Amino acid sequence: MSVSTTEPQTASHTAESARKSSLYAKHNKIYPKSVAGTFRRLKWLTLILLLGLYYVTPWIRWDRGPNAPDQAVLVDMPGRRLYFFFIELWPQQVYYLTGALILGAIGLFLATALAGRVWCGYACPQTVWSDLFLWVERRIEGDRGDRIRLDNAPWSPAKLGKKAAKHAAWLLIALLTGGAWVFYFNDAPTLALEMLRLEASSSVLLFIGLFTATTYLLAGHAREQVCIYMCPWPRFQAAMQDEESLTVTYEDWRGEGRGHLKRSQSWEERKAKGLGDCIDCGACVHVCPTGVDIRNGPQLACIGCGLCVDACNDVMARIGRPGDLVRFDSLNAQIARANGAKPAFKPVRPRTIIYTLLLTVVGGMMAAGLVLKPKVDVNILRDRAPLFVTLSNGDIQNAYTVKILNMTRAAQSYRLSVTGLPGGALSVASGGGEGEAADGSVPVQADPDSVATHRVLVRVPKEALRQPSTPIAFVVTRQPDGLTVQHETVFLAP
């Protein structure tokens, strides 16, 4: 009798091996097949429109008058301005960007409540550039079957040439993407000439390189992995949907059970065997950019592009069956169709009403803010060391730094005064301003499109003070139109 000398695996060793082997899933490359149809045409139209806007916008001109940039959309970092056509924002007005982000988020919630992941399928930059890269790949390497055979074939001069041409085209698109991005932060014609003359700064080259690399990696290599693993939106977009939201669905009540179509088999025979309209051709899976089989129900990886609808409709038309076996539909509509009832799409429901009201309120507030946006702003900083000074005559003096933001293209004159201090006197210690008027105000100046800083001294007789901290307000009045801006602060005393 032979005895095995092999040591048996312990339970802990087996569990550890299983844990290690299941930590990461192997990536299976997806080869999306080309397809024609309504949703593919809609994706092409969206891609052309969005890419056109991206590349053309920095070249649009907008006249803002002398000494102002004439680029319609510009993030002027050295000048600390953001220009968007007729809108000009200073760093102090960054809250408008917050409002824009809120509008974008609520708009995304509303779009998801109405039509599922329509943003992901059509307008997301990852989708747009991945579509463009995939189009290049098809033009060079061929459609799905050709690309699979090319990847499985041994290396040869033909394969090497196709791969090199594809990656060269990808890098060129990525370079144009990064180059267009830096135009939003610099005057586009000026920077283009500097780049042609090889005079671009190191910071410009750094950002071009950064966006070239990220575009090449994300759109050329990561692709669906960004949508499935990196993007957080699929994880919580289901909370934005309900039973009336339009999503890509499969009519399982009509398509199941699945079975390949035989030439000698009639549809009555298929039905008698319990087979449905789905002939299990896999066309819906082959065209999916994320590799989803929509017949298995809603899935996190589905971006809602609708290409599977085009593929299935093409197959149904060729075998003489009704289309829309795969379709954009709501859960309630699917239930109604399965029961033979007439489906109805209900876009007006509580969540869409709430999102629309929020969009209206936030958008209205931002529009009103832009219309009423002041051309001058005041910021007051009171000295903290010392908190106050007792003068030789017994008066109490506080010092303040007054910053006047002149948001116009012309030099402005102002009158600066203080309220809330009976018997108080105002003087400008630095930054200009002389000649106190009868009303106690002093003149100050501000250069065009700049921040004028003035050191201001306020003194008041000690007997006029009733408490250690007195609320006061600085009032800046623009001359000669009388536009007034007020900023509240306090006057401290012993």
Notes on the structure:
The chain is α+β, with helices and mostly antiparallel strands. The termini are far apart. The strands form four sheets. Strands 6, 7, 8, 10 and 12 form a five-stranded antiparallel β-sheet that branches. A four-stranded antiparallel β-sheet has the order 11-9-13-14, with no helix packed on it. The protein has a three-stranded antiparallel β-sheet with strand order 1-2-3, with no helix packed on it. It has 17 helices and 14 strands. Helix 5 (125-141) runs antiparallel to helix 7 (157-183) and helix 5 crosses helix 9 (202-222). It has helices at residues 11-21, 38-56, 95-115, 118-123, 125-141, 144-152, 157-183, 188-196, 202-222, 224-230, 233-236, 252-255, 267-272, 283-286, 307-318, 331-338, 350-371; strands at 73-76, 81-84, 87-89, 247-250, 326-329, 376-382, 389-390, 396-406, 412-419, 425-430, 442-446, 450-460, 469-479, 484-492. It is elongated. Residues 1-9 have low confidence and may be disordered. 42% of the residues lie in helices and 18% in strands.
